[in-house]
Amino acid sequence: DGWHRACAEVWQAPLYWQQRDGEWFAMTLSGFKPVERDAPVCHVSYYEADAFARWAGKRLPSEAEWEHAAQQHDPLSGNFRDEGYLRPLPPARRAGMRLFGNVWEWTQSPYMSYPGYRTPEGAVGEYNGKFMINQMVLRGGSCVTSRSHIRATYRNFFYPHQRWQFTGLRLAEDVRTTRGTRDPFLEDVWSGLSKTPKQISSKYFYDAEGAQIYERITKLAEYYPTRTETRLLKQIVPELRSHVAPGTALVEFGSGASVKTRLLLDRLSAIALYVPVDICQESLDESVRQMQRDYPKLLVRPVAADFLGELSPPADLEGRPVLGFFPGSTIGNLTDVEAESFLRKSRVLLGEGAQFLVGIDLAKDVDVLLRAYDDGEGVTAAFNRNLLVRINRELGANFDPESFAHRAIWNAEQSRIEMHLMSKRDQSVIVRGRCFDFAAGETIHTENSRKYTLKQFAAIASRAGWSMERSWSSADPAFGIVLLR
């Protein structure tokens, strides 16, 4: 029906648009004006809204979903007739615009009576009944709606082909599923914020923005691990050559930008296959593009996954000597029990006879550690708070990142630095419909960074079935690299 209408009426743009000398103009209540490209699209039919949503890989919300989401927003904060603009405004032109105002938003719901509603007898029932057919519900009000006229429950309705009213759209998408469960990020956040004390896994730090902030951290004067490990890797590569057979597959856990990997690839010509494993698909894609450009003869087989989960080795590993690589002291983010479990799983994944090169941060003066995880420029604090920004963006939460302070704490009993986000005040936060209360001073535990002695780490590796074949360590600041077999 929509396609028939679009062809019959030659729809090529929203209603009231005209093209003049290659530029688009729109007839407004103030006459013809150039189209504001960053303003919400207006004067489109349900058919066009639905088609665009499908093209974008999403859908229109149901009116129940729309109304549920609207409960978290102020109905009076939008761009209504009272503002006097009488046109949809770009988001940057007015703070606070959310679901209300600007344009009526098509939903995928037909305009029908609610369950349990009984049509009155007489003229009222007859009058209302004639609208209860072939019309679709719109929500939210528009730039020509009176502010006094709108509320979260208000239902507007039009026939799906109509475009003359200030009608637009909002996209919706389903919660991502994995093996029949809900979004694992959402489940982990819900679960972590329900615990006492609250906690969220550090593996969620590394979205695209988080990865960029972390690269800035590695260049800070206070943050010694990256440059110390890099120097140590360069020193030990000549000795590593005797341990790496021709055709070796290098499997890196938590590959990130693969910066340290290049130290091995540039100096160990025996490596023929690279398998980066990383949880962030975006960072992984970018890293792989650069690797394939800079090492055209190298086979690259990326695996987008949480390396703490169940992994299936690429078929290319079969029959090759394998060298695992886990730099950056990332294993220190795990508890000893988790580290042992990871080492045991990696032994199975890498296969019989494999070797495993692991970077570990060694115990040192507490003041050095605290400065490394709470730098004077506040970069680490931004990295920590970016976790809340990501939760807001991906899970529709309403964290105010600035109301949480970064804290780095030395836990002597566990021999680790802990990173926390401390609530500066009493507050409540909603994450995908669930509310979590914070008292002033309450924290979210976001990361551990365990500091080992070589003897402590050798014991953990031994319990997981590995033996320490070789170890290297730097002078102050102390850092270690171990080769397991």
Low-pLDDT windows of residues: none
How does the helix and strand content classify structurally? alpha/beta
Strand content: 15-25%
Task: Tell me the number of strands.
Answer: 21
Would you give an account of this structure?
- With 485 residues, the protein is an alpha/beta fold.
- Helix content is 29%, strand content 22%.
- It contains 13 helices and 21 strands.
- The strands form five sheets. Strands 9, 10, 11, 12, 13, 14, 20 and 21 form an eight-stranded mixed sheet that branches. Strands 6-5-4-7 form a four-stranded mixed sheet. The protein has a four-stranded mixed sheet with strand order 8-19-16-15.
- Helix 7 runs parallel beside helix 8.
- The longest helix is centred in the last third of the chain and has 17 residues.
- It is elongated.
What would a concise description of this structure say?
This protein has 485 residues and is of the alpha/beta class.
SSE map:
Elements: H1 2-8, E1 17-20, E2 23-28, E3 31-34, H2 46-55, H3 63-70, E4 104-110, H4 123-129, E5 136-139, E6 156-158, E7 167-168, H5 184-194, E8 198-199, H6 208-217, H7 225-240, E9 248-253, H8 259-267, E10 271-278, H9 281-294, E11 299-300, E12 303-304, E13 322-326, H10 336-350, E14 355-361, H11 366-373, H12 379-395, E15 404-411, E16 416-423, E17 427-431, E18 434-438, E19 443-450, H13 454-463, E20 468-473, E21 479-484
Parallel strand pairs: 4-7, 8-19, 9-10, 9-13, 10-11, 10-12, 13-14
Antiparallel strand pairs: 1-2, 2-3, 4-5, 5-6, 14-21, 15-16, 16-19, 17-18, 20-21
Helix pairs in contact: 6-12, 7-8
